[in-house]
């Protein structure tokens, strides 16, 4: 996941500092990665497999 996050920042530099932390490459809340619509991923060492569907989400809660 870390390699993919790094590639996203290189391809879309405006993500850096607003969506993804510059030095750690972790998402900045309320943004998060979701795997296959089932799991939230915070571990950048997670190994993605062929066929995995990764979503970058903006999540807010309110009433």
TrEMBL record:
InterPro entries: Beta-grasp_dom_sf (IPR012675)
Protein's name in the database: Uncharacterized protein
Naturally occurring in which organism (per UniProt): marine sediment metagenome
Taxonomic lineage of the native organism: unclassified sequences, metagenomes, ecological metagenomes
């Amino acid at each position: 996941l870390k390699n993919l996050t790094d590639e996203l920042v290189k391809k879309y530099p405006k993500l850096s500092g607003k969506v993804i932390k510059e030095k750690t490459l972790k998402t900045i809340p309320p943004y998060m990665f979701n795997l296959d619509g089932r799991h939230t991923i915070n571990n950048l060492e997670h190994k993605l497999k062929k066929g995995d569907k990764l979503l970058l989400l903006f999540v807010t809660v309110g009433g």
